[in-house]
Amino acid sequence: MNYLDSLLYAINQAQEAVLQCLKSKEAKVVVKQKDSDLTRRVDLIAEEKIEESLKNEGIEAYLISEETPIKKIGEKINPELIIVVDPLDGTRNFVNSIPFYSISIAVGKVKNEHSQLSSLFIGVVKDILRGDIFYAVKGEGAYYNNEKIKENLFYEEDKPLISLYSYGNTLSLKTLSSLLKKFKIRVLGSLALELCYTALGRLDGVIDAREKARIVDFAAGKIVLEEAGGVVSNLNGEPIEASLKDVKKGFNLIATKTPSFHKTLLNALKS
User: Fold this and answer.
1) Hey, how many other C-beta atoms are within 10 angstroms of the C-beta on 19?
2) Is the pTM of this model over 0.85?
3) Is 204 part of a structural domain of the chain?
4) Are 57 and 167 within one domain?
5) How far apart are CA 54 and CA 87, in angstroms?
6) What 8-state DSSP symbol labels residue 240?
7) Residues 7 and 140 in one domain
8) How far is CA 254 from CA 98, 204, 263, in A?
9) pLDDT, tens only, 70-88
10) Residue 6 buriedness (CB in 10 A; 0-12 / 13-18 / 19+)
């Protein structure tokens, strides 16, 4: 079975469902709240469309989503696949009519639900409003709108442009001040899409130092960026190791287009 085609079909169906919610006040209503996490109706609509589409494609898998507990789809008692979904990454942007939000899906082949982040081998991210599609299969490179992402040879003489999520964390004022002096900063509000922008070279890197980035937020974008030659690690420069069942656990991360700039960001944080 061509899993990539099935994921692309599911993500396109979810995109249409979200677009139909653009002018709906009901879609923005909060239907579930836990601590600082808000689930809105549009999140559930997108998730249900993804699940329905995968079932229609004959996919049998464990399904892990930001909005609901782990579940099984299909008839198999022990599915061979595990799918990680963020049905709407950037929900607050959607609610506030800020045109930057996405859907992301990653898939791995496993023996049971006790699987690690490293077991995922396909990642797909779609920019809902622009329709841009990013996807990658481990070992086969990363693609943007069906064209292979090549090494970014463009050199910008200005300061590097990074996305920095730092609110609510323990980064010192000295460290923040240093980062602001060395880099130009953006915070766009959809981590999956920002990782893909880094793969393209639109951003030089991403730092999320909040310990709030969850597996569903970055799993698919991580595969795209790494297959484009980029690097993703924790703030110490180590690989992010996580069980896919830790859906609610928050992580820090540094992601860059090149290994050399990854070292630059690590050194900037240490200094």
Assistant:
1) 12
2) yes
3) yes
4) no
5) 13
6) -
7) yes
8) 25, 11, 10
9) 889 988 888 889 999 999 9
10) buried
For 93-98, what is the mean pLDDT? 96
Q: Which amino acid is at 65?
A: S
Could you tell me if 178 and 231 lie in one domain?
yes
In terms of C-beta density within 10 A (0-12 exposed, 13-18 middle, 19 or more buried), how is residue 4 classed?
middle
190 lies in the same domain as 119: no
Question: Phi then psi for 135, rounded to 5 degrees?
Answer: -150, 160
Q: Is 20 helix (H, G, I), strand (E, B) or coil?
A: coil
- Tokens 């109706």 sit at which residue? 41
Non-local (6+) Cβ contacts of 56 within 8 A are none
Q: Is residue 153 part of a domain?
A: no
Query: Would residue 187 count as lying in a domain?
Result: yes
**Would you tell me the crossing angle of helices 3-19 and 41-56 to the nearest 10 degrees?**
150
| Pairing state between β 102-109 and 142-144 | unpaired
Residue 125: C-alpha distances to residues 78, 175, 213, 230 (Å): 27, 32, 16, 16
Q: Are residues 8 and 97 in the same domain?
A: yes
Domain of residue 200: give its range: 161-270
- Are residue 19 and residue 130 in the same domain, yes or no? yes
Number of domains in the chain: 2
Q: Which two tokens stand for residue 253?
A: 């991360």
What distance in Å separates the CA atoms of residue 84 and residue 237, rounded to the nearest whole number?
A: 24
Write the CATH number for 241. 3.40.190.80
Q: What is the pLDDT of residue 217?
A: 95
